[in-house]
Amino acid sequence: MRMDKTEFSNKLKNLKTDGKSTIELYNEISLLAMQYGLSQADVPAQRNAYYLSMEFLIGRSFFNNLMELGVLDETRELLKEKGVDINVFEEIEDAALGNGGLGRLAACFLDSAAGLGLPLHGYGIRYKYGLFKQAIRNGFQVELPDDWQSFGDPWSIRKAHGKRKIKFADMTVTAVPYDMPVFGKRVNVLRLWQAEGSAAAQKISEYLYPADDTEDGKLLRLRQEYFFSAAAVGELVEKYVKLHGKNFDDFADHNVIQLNDTHPVLAIAELIRVLTTKYKLGFDKAEGIAKKTFAYTNHTVMPEALECWGASLVKKILPDIYDVLIKLQESQTSEFKRLCCSEAEASEMAIYANDKFSMANLAVYVGNTVNGVAKLHTDILKTDLFKTAYKYYPNKFQNKTNGITQRRWLMLCNRELSELLDGTIGSAWRDDISKLGVLNAHVSDMLGGFVKVKTEKKRQLFEYIKKHEGVYIPENFMVYAQVKRLHEYKRQLMTAFAILEIYKGLTDGKIKDFRPSVFVFGAKSAPSYKRAKAIIKFINDIADKINSDPRTNALLRVVFVKNYNVSYAEKIVAGTDVSLQVSTAGLEASGTGNMKFMMNGAVTCGTMDGANIEIVELAGKENNYIFGADVDEIERLKRGDYDPNAILKADAYHSYAVNTLIDGTFSDGDTGGFKELYDALTVGASWHKPDHYFVLHDLKSYVEALLKINTDSKDEKAFAVKQIKNVANSAHFSSDRTIKEYASDIWKIK
Ligand code: 26Q
User: Fold this and answer.
1) Kind and range of the H or E element at 466?
2) Is the pLDDT of residue 619 over 80?
3) Pocket test for ligand 1, best of 102, 380, 528 (most atoms within 8 A of CB)
């Protein structure tokens, strides 16, 4: 049933709110908006791009969808008339079907493609439980199930007639699609598959990242990856046959499939399997079609995050896929012979080696393009991770620097700044983000307004933190934030040490005239990642100590926000002055949080890593704070005899901070976690040298950068200029720009 805007408004006006719970209202309004939104659905495009991803970190759909449909303000007003504050819907939990940057990127991409009117659709898994909810007990992370569907799921439609059978050697699973429309200039679809059937079958779509430290866990993850890849490929082939018949010569003219990291790479083998078995194509022909259809994005250079599958595991549950993979290996071997690769080169690029299948090598071999997600990252792919492949297939490699959607990450999360921009440069930037650059000529016009907006967004953030964490932060405080997955390479531990050094400097009088500052952390650790969990405990202990010390707590506070998620991020990015992006150079592929902060007018305090490099290139080094070793320096340190213990001996402040791990200042509750962190820095472990993320090497320059920021910020106007310059040059980091590049250089869609 079609519904136009007037009808939507009338229905909303007539909505009875009395006596209804928030959840009831949420479902009713959402369903109304769905009906209205789906009335705008388009005719299918001739050529479509599909984004296969294990994660879609959508967050809350309610506000975003109403905004995309152009009815958010009206709904807010109408509800107000009825005595309902629209913010009550903040009670509705996020759909956290992802755990970090890769999943959030997928969500931003879908938003941008719909916004630009480009036919890009998503395929993923409809997990029953999203990323765990994080509680902090006694400073430790505790994981609780995230039953996100308990509020209802009005933004999805179950499409029972689209269900498919997915066959494993030991069971058959039904994949049932749930469609989430993505509203914009076009209505695209995110299709998430739910596993149904026996209890074992249902398990496949139960959890995001089942623990994979056991054989059973690995098996389940393999099933998940094949499950949604096969459902997607099967559907695309069937659709093609319906429209164009069984001649597959044009398959790649109508479909392009983007593989979001290595997790969906089995889709390649599945396409070849279906074409060769069901439609009797020759292997070479099927391989040729796959080579035209798939493109691969790499999101990490950390070897442990590149998916590999044990050959016996694959053979056991997916014997036909095993056969295809072996044939691909044979075809690869003959191609390498033709190309005269050396044996060493061939084994480096091999799909099958040491009884394992490398999903990365498979994706590089078959992928029509291979892309990194920031300039430096793509360079590292070319010169390091995939250097041999780059030598033989240089034309496959491309860079596509990540982006974020300004609709969620500016218009929605920072209405105040958005309205200020309208008043300063007009509202054309809302339809064409590249117009934001106009602001460069109006920085001084915006100074006063900007400071007011920032102060207001900080006030809102502090109120939220008070409500959720019980920590009070006085209004005049500067905000430094480090929010991201917890990982050693991201170096939250280095920030913890820096805070301890500042704390000591304040207590012993070495640091004077310090502008009151709060450090805000938000991070979830993988449940089995012991060191990351110890770092969370350490930060929470530091927060307790500093916040309760009357000598310093008018100047310095620390908050670890629990259950950091997309909705929390929306508050934090808007209310932050300084964005902390301090990964070891060469290891953060891009980062996207850095872009969100930039767009909301925070300066970056960071290393020359990932997209930070492009951020400071565009916003100006003078408007940001870069410190620490760059990639070349890190390479030299790795080759030389880097000695963190010498640094510790020479610097009393460093040794104070690091020693708190073992001198009884804090207690890890006899878990041994703090000692383990200390040892990782000072003696190393069987798998790594001491301090292999170079925390101690960069710590001194980090503290100096933080103190310089603190001093600079006392000139409120000069500091606001830096912040505004960041906003003014952030258009490049809109995912609209990124998606346009994918659409023209890789997907060829219009
Ligand atoms: C691999 C094997 C086994 C189990 C899990 C995994 C696994 C799961 C998730 C490996 C990697 C991920 C997630 C990676 C991720 O989020 N990467 C981030 O991607 C962002 C978008 O491109 C970048 O901005 C970040 O720099 C990058 O860390």
Assistant:
1) helix 443-469
2) yes
3) 102
